[in-house]
Amino acid sequence: LVGGAEGMARLCRTLTEAGLGEVRVSVGERLGYPEEKISAGTARELAGGTFDPLSAALIENEAARPFAPGLPDGLFLRGQGAGGAVPMTESEVRAGILSKLAPPRDAVCWDVGAGTGSVSVELALWAREGQVFAIEKKEDALSLLEENRKKFHVSNLEIVPGSAPGACRELPPPTHAFLGGSSGNLREIVALLLEKNPQVRIVASGVTLETVGELTGIGKDFSFATFDAVCISASRSRNAGVFHLMCAQNPVYLFTFQRQGGAP
Questions:
Q1: In whole angstroms, what is the distance from residue 245 CA to residue 234 CA?
Q2: Which residues of 186-202 are buried (b: 16+ CB within 10 A; e: fewer)?
């Protein structure tokens, strides 16, 4: 139900600016009255129209797809930065991260070291009624983060430039946090997370033995009630003439931390 002289046109313009200009909008004006009028078109087509100040809109997006964790990697934009391709967490690992975090729909999530934003986007799609903060310090990654945010229409995803923990101090307390990149500040980031919310649920990834060792020490030193580690080793097929070969991906370790009393 949309009110105001420009309300319906403004709604259609907002949809168009958000990349949803092709959704179908059916507008009902003066419903139930003799002068009732119903018109339909795309949001882009109706953005310049004039409608009754009190109208109802039915918005249908035929291109919408159901969300399942572990979206195909090819859906995300991934450009080349000064140091090569901007890091991206691949689909098999992303599915594991969401499974371990298990955020509710109203979760407040931090994604530290967000890279291209693949984890941030999936968290935002899952926690539609919550808020996701993507913390990233690299300029080339920040631009890709913004492009992927727009592509997936996740208005509940906010991009935070800078390094953790400094860039996170003014953010609201998180219920869930994923640590994908820490720039050597793992302990300081975990300490800030616990200061913000002692029951925060944390999932952290590691690909080097040094990071795995540090995460193991953090799990012991911070006295977490939940201290779980899993190694995900995935292989992907590639064509070799008429045959297919399996190519192993780098194993990724996922650590889950939470203190007593926290709910996933």
A1: 13
A2: beebbebbbebbeebbb
User: Could you tell me which of 187, 135, 178, 179 has the C-alpha nearest to residue 158?
Assistant: 135
pLDDT, tens only, 33-75: 999 999 999 999 999 999 999 899 999 998 777 778 899 998 9
Distances (CA, A) of 27 to 17, 21, 32, 157: 19, 15, 13, 29
Distances (CA, A) of 66 to 59, 63, 75, 83, 126: 17, 10, 14, 35, 11
Residue 95 token pair? 């599915």
Distances (CA, A) of 257 to 12, 44, 147, 246: 44, 47, 31, 33
User: Is the preceding peptide bond at 103 cis, omega within 30 degrees of 0?
Assistant: no
Decide: residue 97, CB within 10 A, 0-12 exposed, 13-18 middle, 19+ buried: buried
Kindly indicate the confidence band of residue 242, based on its pLDDT and cuts at 50, 70 and 90. very high
- What the block records as the tokens of 104 is 């509710």
pTM: 0.79
- The pLDDT of residue 46 is 94
Please name which of 79, 18, 34, 26 lies closest in space to residue 55, comparing C-alpha atoms: 26
Rounded Cα distance between 221 and 190, Å, is 11
